[in-house]
Every structure is written in structure tokens, then in C-alpha cells.
Write a structure and sequence with these properties.
The complex is a heterodimer of chains A (123) and B (266). With 123 residues, chain A is mostly helical. Chain A has helices at 11-15, 23-32, 48-67, 77-80, 104-111. Chain B is α+β, with helices and mostly antiparallel strands and 266 residues long. In chain B, the strands form two sheets. In chain B, strands 2-3-1-4 form a four-stranded antiparallel β-sheet, with helices on both faces. A four-stranded antiparallel β-sheet of chain B has the order 6-7-5-8. The two termini of chain B are 44 Å apart. Chains A and B meet through helix 1, helix 2 and helix 3 of A and strand 1, helix 2, helix 3, strand 4 and helix 4 of B.
Chain lengths: 123, 266
């Protein structure tokens, strides 16, 4: 916590709590990263309504990026994770998913039917 | 006590850590301004606060999270606690992980202790830093020196300008790839995320790179130097360095228990 980011942006200090951090930076972290273990209260962040929010927030850059041929994230979890947690238990039926090797999250997502948001078939 | 015995509460989990002390969280407002506490199991502890299920039950919370203002409020509160906790080794939990009571949290800690320990080991002494690269407006601007002489001339110029801008952006995109590779080489781990929408980032420039890097805390200065060097050598990109963040992008159970075969059937 000793190094201040350089350059014009003050977002680094923000991340440390000195001032409000960029909402996008926070949302993408708290909504799409961190450890996923389904609690007792089944609040799926990946409910279709929230997915709509994500799509609404992201759609412009998605389109722009696609036009430019930037598509490496097409199979990233952000959109495609939509269907994942529904069947996941804290230590039950989802346990095997946590044992998958690095990079498997991507593969896992592709295995899910994600309402055609990212791809329309499964393997 | 307005709610009395009828008031149902749940336990909101922010992060799992080791060597956590309750005093670090004193006076820290959690989600819905509730006081932050610890639930311990062995040497692990969960950072938690109590939430009123009248407002944070499954349906209510779902509604709240679909309202961008409420989403922001909850997300910032959650994030703030995570950042404070990150003074010590922690792994953040996905937002809106809620348990019925502290005993359930304790069980969750015990059941996943191996995975948590592995995840904590991976991030201990390290920080997450974010690097974004934008197409520099200065690099892609095409100055008009003279006014168009006709409509056809205007259209021709417009077309040429669009093509040039497109080519320039493609080149910038390739540069962003190179920047990512170089930064990844200076990091313990690296993740590339989807570029953010300008409405989220509040930045109108085209984002070409949105990446997270796991850096040894002692090497944070060196990493910043690398970013600075890239700024000098890649003029067509605007680089933005943010951090240190709690290790959100690297706190995954999936990856940390990947190769181990610790999950024996009981």
C-alpha cells in the first residue's frame, strides 16, 4: 500500500479508499470475480435481470470491440456465466467444478447453455 | 428493537482471510451500514456483517441489485470492507454471498478450508494492480487543414478519415496485446478482462486493454516503472494503472485447487 500509481489517473488512490473508485472497476470486480460459493440465501448474481444490466452496461464496448476484431473475451465468464450457479451447492453438486484445472472456467461456461448470449450450442 | 424476534437476519460474507483482527474492522460500516465482524474457524476467518432479510432476502436483493443506484451503494460498501480487510491476506467472496447464520458460515469455512488455504497462499504478500490501455485520442486524430471544397470532397475525406481511424485502432489493438504480454512477464499472474463500456468507466476513449496483474507487494514499484516505460514507448496508447486492489481477479478456488487431488470422497 505504499506505491501511488503514476500518471493522470487518480483511480489508484481510489482503490485504496482515498476517494470513490471508478464504479466500473468496482462492479466488474465484485460482480464477476472473487470466490463463488453459493450461500444459504440463493441470490444468483447471474439472474437474467442482472445479466440484462451487464449487457446494457457492456453492449457498446462489445459492439465496438467486435467491429475491431477484438473478440478474445467472447467466451469469458462475464456474460456466459449466466447459467452457472443455479445448480451449484456450497459443497455438494458443484464441488467438482471447483476442481477443474486452470482455464477450465472458460470451458465450463461454454458447456452451459447461456440463452444464446454468447453462443447457441453446447459441446 | 423494532423488529424484535420477528426480524430475520442473514450473514453477508465479504472475504475469507487469515491473521484477521476484529479491531481492524471497528467502526467500519458494512453493507446497509451494519457493523463488520469476524466468524472464525481454526486459523481462518470470514469477514461478515448482518443483513436484514426483509431487505436482503433473495427476492428483495435481486430487485435491489437490478437498480443501478442501489447496486452501486451495495457494491461500494462491499468493496470498501474487502479493501480494508486486504491489509491482511484475504480472498474476496463474490458479492451477495449470504448465509442463514454464523454457524453456517463456520461450516462453510471448515468444508472449504483446504481450498481457502490454497487460495490464500497464492495471494499472500501480493497485490492486484489493474492496467487499462486506451487508444490515445491524440494518436488517432486526423487534423483537417483545409475546408472541403464540395460535398463529394467531404464524403471522400470522411471515408478516408474513417479508414485511417480504423487502421489506427487495429494497430493500437495489436499494441495493447504486446503491452499485456510484457506486463504479464513482470507479474506473478495475469488476467485479461473484457474492456469496459464508457458509461461504466466514465471515459469516452476506446478501451483496448483491461487487465489485472498479481504483483509481489515488494515489487509494486518495479511494476509501476514498467508501466511508465511502456507509456514512453507506446505513444498511441494511454495507460492507466490502478491499485493496489484486493486480489479479486486471482482469488479463485477453481484455479488454486486445480492440480491437487485433495478432494477425496469422504
Amino acid at each position: 500500500m505504499t506505491v501511488e500509481p503514476r500518471g493522470r489517473s487518480s483511480a489508484g488512490a481510489a482503490a485504496g479508499g482515498h476517494q470513490p473508485a471508478n464504479l466500473g472497476d468496482i462492479l466488474e470486480r465484485v460482480l464477476d470475480r472473487g470466490i463463488v460459493i453459493v450461500g444459504d440465501i440463493r441470490v444468483s448474481l447471474l439472474d437474467i435481470e442482472l445479466l440484462t444490466i451487464k449487457l446494457r452496461l457492456l453492449i457498446a464496448s462489445v459492439d465496438t470491440a467486435r467491429e475491431l476484431g477484438i473478440d478474445w473475451w467472447q467466451h469469458d465468464p462475464w456474460l456466459s456465466s449466466a447459467a452457472r450457479p443455479a445448480v451449484r451447492g456450497p459443497n455438494g453438486d458443484g464441488a467438482h467444478e471447483r476442481e477443474l484445472p486452470a482455464g477450465s472456467r472458460r470451458r465450463m461456461d461454454e458447456d452451459w447453455d447461456v440463452e444464446g448470449a454468447v453462443r447457441d450450442g453446447r459441446r | 428493537m423494532m423488529g424484535g424476534a420477528d426480524q430475520q437476519t442473514g450473514v453477508w460474507v465479504y472475504a475469507i482471510g487469515r491473521q484477521l483482527d476484529q479491531p481492524a474492522f471497528r467502526d467500519l460500516p458494512g453493507v446497509d451500514t451494519a457493523p463488520v465482524d469476524l466468524v472464525r474457524a481454526g486459523d481462518l476467518a470470514a469477514v461478515v456483517s448482518s443483513v436484514d432479510l426483509d431487505r436482503f432476502g433473495a427476492d428483495e436483493l435481486k430487485r435491489a441489485l437490478n437498480d443501478l443506484d442501489q447496486l452501486e451503494q451495495i457494491a461500494r460498501a462491499h468493496h470498501h470492507v474487502v479493501q480494508v480487510a486486504a491489509e491482511r491476506p484475504i480472498v474476496p467472496m463474490r458479492m451477495a454471498t449470504i448465509y442463514d447464520d454464523e454457524e453456517s458460515v463456520r461450516l462453510m469455512l471448515i468444508e472449504n478450508s483446504g481450498a481457502f488455504t490454497a487460495a490464500l497462499h497464492r495471494v499472500e504478500g501480493r497485490q492486484e494492480w489493474g492496467v487499462k490501455a486506451f487508444a490515445s485520442p491524440a494518436a488517432s486524430a486526423s487534423p483537417e487543414t483545409t475546408a472541403p471544397v464540395s460535398g463529394a470532397d467531404y464524403l471522400k475525406r470522411r471515408q478516408a478519415s474513417l479508414t485511417a481511424a480504423d487502421e489506427s485502432r487495429r494497430a493500437s489493438s495489436a499494441e495493447a496485446d504486446a503491452v499485456y504480454r510484457r506486463l504479464a512477464g513482470s507479474a506473478e499472474a495475469a488476467r485479461r478482462h473484457r474492456p469496459q463500456d464508457p458509461r461504466l468507466s466514465g471515459d469516452r476513449r476506446l478501451m483496448l486493454l483491461n487487465a489485472a496483474f498479481l504483483i509481489d507487494s515488494s515489487a509494486a514499484g518495479t511494476f509501476a516503472d514498467v508501466v511508465e516505460d511502456i507509456r514512453r514507448t507506446h505513444r498511441s496508447l494511454d495507460l492507466e494503472l490502478t491499485g493496489p486492489w484486493a486480489p479479486y481477479s486471482f482469488a479463485t478456488i477453481d484455479d488454486t485447487v486445480s492440480v491437487s487431488s485433495t478432494e477425496e470422497p469422504t
